[in-house]
Amino acid sequence: MATACKQYAMPSLEDNSVMINGAALDDETVGYDYEFLPSLDNKYMCPICLLALRDPVQTECGHRFCHLCILRCIRKKARCPVDQITLHSNQLFLDRSAQREVLDLKASCTNQGCEIVMELRNIKEHELHCPHRRSPCKNGCGLELLSQDLVFHEVNQCPRRTVTCPTCQQEYAFNMQKQHEEDCKQFEPVVCEHCNHEVKRYKLKQHVSSECPQAPIKCVFHKVGCHEEYPRHDIKSHMDSTTQIH
């Protein structure tokens, strides 16, 4: 098996920051975790991570592993994990044939609701633009939604969406509204000087101008000479009793 492979100059295992295909030796990159159709053949499965081989390498003793998986393994113990034969990084071979075969395998899209099955080499690009792809809410509420629903949620439904106080114009998270109302002076209760009714400060002007039953109201004919003022609840009686005079 090893004769079909090209020897590969492996980096030193002493360098923990070494990068392999964009992945650091100490990161969590393992094999390809997909559902394959048909099911994954054991010859394409890494004996260490039990997933489809990623950047497969082959040992002189004839075993295949993910590149990073076997590097991590022999960094801890310089032996093949299958047969325990002594193994060093310069005894690994990049298996390009196996790599092509793995990338030719048919894999299912991992996005819920998507039924697309395509070659492994193309599946990641599909998933980035898949209509069934779910993305996390940028407000940090923890929900993941379809792209078509995400913006509406973030603006109109998310408990952590940004809202603006209509009275003080301060911005805050929607789920902090109660606390903001407690802190905002415009929400402080004040007593109407006309009826002694308690209202929020920001509603006082509206209360006096259109609701307060005791607020003084000018006669609707004040522009033509009637200078009388009556409490709002009495203005109708005034109008009814003085219609002829007006």
Structural features, described:
With 246 residues, the protein is an alpha+beta fold. The protein has helices spanning 67-76, 96-104, 120-129, 147-157, 177-183, 204-210, 232-241; strands spanning 6-7, 19-20, 23-24, 56-59, 64-66, 92-94, 106-108, 117-119, 134-136, 144-146, 162-164, 171-173, 189-191, 198-200, 216-218, 229-231. The strands form 7 sheets. It has a 4-stranded antiparallel beta sheet. Strands 2-3 form a two-stranded antiparallel ribbon. β2 and β3 form a beta hairpin. The protein starts with 5 loop residues before the first strand and ends in a 5-residue tail after the last helix. Mean pLDDT is 85; it is low at 1-18. GO terms for molecular function: ubiquitin protein ligase activity; zinc ion binding. Residues 46-84 form the RING-type domain. A zinc finger (TRAF-type) spans 153-236.
Short account of what is shown:
The protein is an alpha+beta fold and 246 residues long.
CATH superfamily of the largest domain: Zinc/RING finger domain, C3HC4 (zinc finger)
Q: What is the first-to-last residue Cα distance?
A: 112 Å
Tell me the name of the CATH class of the largest domain.
Alpha Beta
**Largest β sheet strand count, sense and barrel closure:** 4 strands, antiparallel
Structural class, by secondary structure, is alpha+beta
Helical residue percent? 25-40%
Rg, rounded, reads: 37 Å
Kindly give the count of domains: 3
User: Mean pLDDT across all residues, rounded?
Assistant: 85
Adjacency order of strands in the biggest sheet? 1-6-4-5
Pfam family, one: zf-C3HC4_2
GO molecular function, one term: zinc ion binding
Zinc finger (TRAF-type): 153-236
Domain TRAF-type: 153-236
